Amino acid sequence: MYASAENALSVIDRLVTGEGFLTASAAPGADEPVGRYATLFGRDALIAALQTLPVRPHIATATIDALGSRQGRRLVPETAEEPGKIPHEDWEVAPQWHRDRAWPVEPDGSLRYFGSVDSTSLYLILAARLKITDATVTAALHWLRSSLAANGLVTYAGHREGGLYHQGWRDGLWDKEGSGVRWPSGAQVEAPVAVASAQAFAYHALRCHGFEADAEQLADAVDEAFFRHGQPWPALAVDGHGRAVPTKASEIGIMLWSDLLKPARVEPAVSALQALMTRWGPRTISPEHASFSPDAYHLGAVWPFECWFAWGALRRHGATELAGRVCKGVLDAVEHLRCMPECYAAPLDGGPPFVPGRATRLQAWTAGAVWALASGWDGRSGLASGC
C-alpha cells in the first residue's frame, strides 16, 4: 500500500539532511520532476516535524536547532529579518529565479529570507512540544508579542518586488498568478494583511508558553475583526483597511485546530469547512470564488498538510464522520497518485485526483500528513487509533 505510515516514513527519511531537518521537497529527480523546495523552509520543516514527532523526535529537535541558529538578529527590510524572527527559507545557493526577480541574494549566491508571518509561531509550538525554553524561544516570544502589541493581530506588509508579498502559507508574489489571498471577486488583498492561519498559530503558540492573557486578547481581536463581513464563517484575512475578506477558505481548519474561535463560532465554522469538501479532502477555496479552478495552486487545489489540521480539528470538535471523510480522502488520493505531492486537484465531476504541473511530487509535509493520518496523530493529543 503506497499511502501507508511505513511508506510515508520512507519518504520522510529520504528528505532528512545532514543537519537532521527535513527539506521541504525532494531534489529534482526521476520521481520528482519539479523539486523546487529542496532546502530548509521554516514553515514546512516545522509542520513536518510536528506531524512526525511521535516517531521521529530527533527530526523535531534538529529542526529547532537549525532554525534557532538562523534566527533573526537585526532589522533588515530587504530580507524581512527582525530580531527573534524565524526564517522562511535558507539557501546555500539560491535558484536562478530568485536572482531574476531581484530577491536579496548575497554575492556568494546564498539567500536567507525571513518573509514568513507564521514560522516563528510554529517554532514556538514545536519548542513547547519538546519542552525547550532557551534564548531562541525567549527571542521568538518577544518578536511575537511585540508584533501583537503593535497591531492587535499578526500582520505582514510584504514585498511588492524582491520577495514575497503574501507571507502566510499561501505565500506568493505581487503578480497575476502569485497570490492565493484574494477577495471573492478575485482582486488582490492589499497589505498590511492579517491572514487567518497566522492568528491561529500565534494563539496556540502563546497558550503553549503560558501567555493566556495575550492569547485571549488575540482571540477577542479575531472575533471582532474576522467576522466584520457579516457571514457565519471566519474571513480568510483582514486587509490594511480593516476589512474582512469573506472568502470561504480551508484556513478554517487551522483556526479550529488551534481552538482560536469562540465556542459559538465553532459549529458554523465546521459547516463552512464541510462546504469545501470533496471526495479527496477540502479545497482551499469554494468553487463559487471568481478565481477558483480545481487545479489552481492556492485557489482550488487540495493540500494534504492543511487537510491534516482540518482532520484533527474536526475530530477535536466532535465532527468525527466528517473527520473520517477527510482522512480517507487524503489517503485514497495519495494511493491513487502514487506520490506525495504538495497539492492535487479534485475535479468538479468527482473524478480521480491529479497533480497540477507546478506542484512538487514528494513534499515533506504531505508525507508527514500521511503518516499522521494513518497513525491517528493530530499534533495535539496522544496517539489514537487510525482513521
TrEMBL record:
Residues 210-336 form the Mannosylglycerate hydrolase MGH1-like glycoside hydrolase domain. One of its GO terms (biological process) is carbohydrate metabolic process. SUPFAM superfamilies: Six-hairpin glycosidases. Signal peptide: none annotated. Gene3D superfamilies: 1.50.10.10. Pfam families: MGH1-like_GH. This is Mannosylglycerate hydrolase MGH1-like glycoside hydrolase domain-containing protein.
